[in-house]
Amino acid sequence: MIKIYDINKLTLDEILARETSATGVEDIVSGIIKDVKENGDAALYKYCEKFDKVTLSSLEVIPDEIQEALSLVEPEFLEILKEAAANITEYHKNQVRDGFEIKKADGIILGQKVIPVRRAGLYVPGGTAAYPSTVLMDSIPAKIAGVKELCITTPPAKDGKVNPVILAAASIAGVDRIFKVGGAQAIAALAYGTESIPKVDKIVGPGNAFVAEAKRQVYGLVSIDMIAGPSEILVIADGTCNPEFVAADLLSQAEHDKLASAVLVTDSLELANKVRDELERQVALLPREEIARTSIDNNGKIIIVESIEQAIEISNEIAPEHLEVCVDEPFKYLDLIENAGSIFLGKMCPEALGDYFSGTNHTLPTSGTAKFSSPLSVDDFVKKSAYSYYTPEALSKVADKVAFFAEKEGLSAHARSATVRFKK
Predict the structure, then answer these.
(1) Which is the catalytic residue, given 322, 324, 351, 362?
(2) Is 322 one of the annotated active-site residues of the chain?
(3) Cα(49)–Cα(45) distance, rounded to whole angstroms?
């Protein structure tokens, strides 16, 4: 059963306590990466047989397989995928940045170019769970950014095929190539390239402990979005909230995995008790009851505070992945919120809207990293280059100043590069 705490009896460390996945898989992942780097496709086929229990004749999904998948997905779901894709596109188009140029006296020109990464790799989990929402969330911002080639890696099923809903979502999102590879070996293939899979510049997408560790190990060779921890939700609710709604929202994250964190912060002890009772009632109805119950019992908490303002102060310290502000006038508090991955305002805005449909991205910072990180966006798929232009007259006016500065740092060659152009 979830525990109820009085804020005045909790230390900051107790408030911030999170259970994180201690992987212990570093050496295993390191060996897989080395194998893929040295042996390419041969290693990938080997790991498909070992981990996915399937022998493949080809790693890449062919167009016929995509067409077959589209025919297998219910037309109603295809329409929902398309509508969700449209919402995600509409939202993320507003994130597009232009470069700028400053023209100064003496012909000086300074500017910045915004350039998409040339190729991006998207990891999509497979196995017992299929997440077409992840395909849309990770692919659409990349396409809007102008990424020229977008590749997905995802584990095959035992029949050697990719889940049809994954292929359908990839088709709708405009993914260029899809490969039947999962696990740390997929991350290694994207980072180093193999005979079949091209090397990419950026890898995004969630995965298990092996995938997360592989992303950590290849970072620097390629860019990554983030190393995601267990799912989190923090609900701020006042005493007028419906406890059934609040409990349902907490369980929406608790069912992800046993390490997930679901926290309610409220100024009402009465609501706290009712939500605790609702959690017990609703968790018993879930197909993933064992997972959700372990999450709620071990990592869930209800914190009683004196005001909604104090609740927001607590939330800012926790910096949750998902934050729901379940009050009648949520916009009154929006400016007070400093640290949260995605914010859901009002009593009729469950975080599931952001997971699937509203248009905001569901790839979010976890484990308190919302204090300095942001949701996946178009910005993740671009880089910026600065440029400068000086005329001879413009340089002549500042060359001695540049040289003086360089000499102060003991860098004489820097100094000479500015003054040598005016040597008589």
Answers:
(1) 322
(2) yes
(3) 6
